[in-house]
Amino acid sequence: MSNSAVWFADYAEFIPDFAAFCDSLYVEPTCCLRVNTLRTTPAIVADMLRQENYDVQPSPLSDDLLLVENLTHPGTLRGALMGYYYSQALTSALASLALDPQPGELICDLCAAPGSKTSHIAQLMQDQGLIVANDRHGKRLSMLEFNLKRLGITNTVTTCYPGQSFPLRHKFQRVLVDAPCSGEGNYRWDHKGRLRHRLRSSGNLPDVQRQLLLRGYDLLVPGGTLIYATCTYNPAENESVIQTLLEARPATIEPIAHNLPHASGLKTWKAHTYDERIQHCWRLYPHTSHSVGFFLARIRAGPPASDDPQLF
Questions:
Q1: Residues near 118 by beta carbon (within 8 Å), at least 6 away in sequence
Q2: Which residue in 9, 17, 162, 200 has a CA-CA distance of 20 to 30 Å to 223?
Q3: Catalytic residue annotation
Q4: 117 appears as a binding residue in the annotation
């Protein structure tokens, strides 16, 4: 049994094709670049990369996302220094696309640093409207502000609050809760079986995640949209957190309307049985998405819209 199979043995019952999943953890994901359409176009970036002999392909998710084989240090290339693109995992970019931000809206990114999703949201808003990008760590905010400046983004202000106690003075049309997590979706092993890309967690993450999700929901206007995202497989950080929200607030879990291979949210885990609405959540695995592992839930503040009979 491989080291990855031993590490994730508890998840074998719900990860589809568990053997292929474990094998994929010995392979680095294909590099994904998000083209900064505030400054350039995908065609220009693709041509720049091909001139440097890189194989560039469009992604199935969005025209603004390019997949580049054998590119290991994208931040060192000319295009990155010019703010023409941002290196971002394909599954990570899905969070902002699922949020579906619109120009002119008021949006909160509750755990924003270092800014990959904040800058993507601004790009989708055509740099119009206002984003409040919050992070509790001042040093991380400095990196976020640097990235926003490099990408030419002007519609974002930064704040430094613990997300779970973010002030409720204003309501937002959309909120992103990209929660701190155990980061299992980034775990990789080298050819000698040594674990790389492991993130070290601190404290009781599920408690923090539940608090962040509840505060994010309470920041929404009626009918507003929230995305809850993690880069981990652990149901305690995913479905169990969503279950807490459904028991505490009149929330609706909405389908995610994008084209990427995924599994549905779990029905059960160990002694837990989850609300059937959680099946609208997405689980993304590296052997099917060819990216990092992710979990996504799209949440509406209040009951389903009257024209959404498919929701329950």
A1: 109, 112, 131, 133, 144, 148, 156
A2: 162
A3: 231
A4: yes
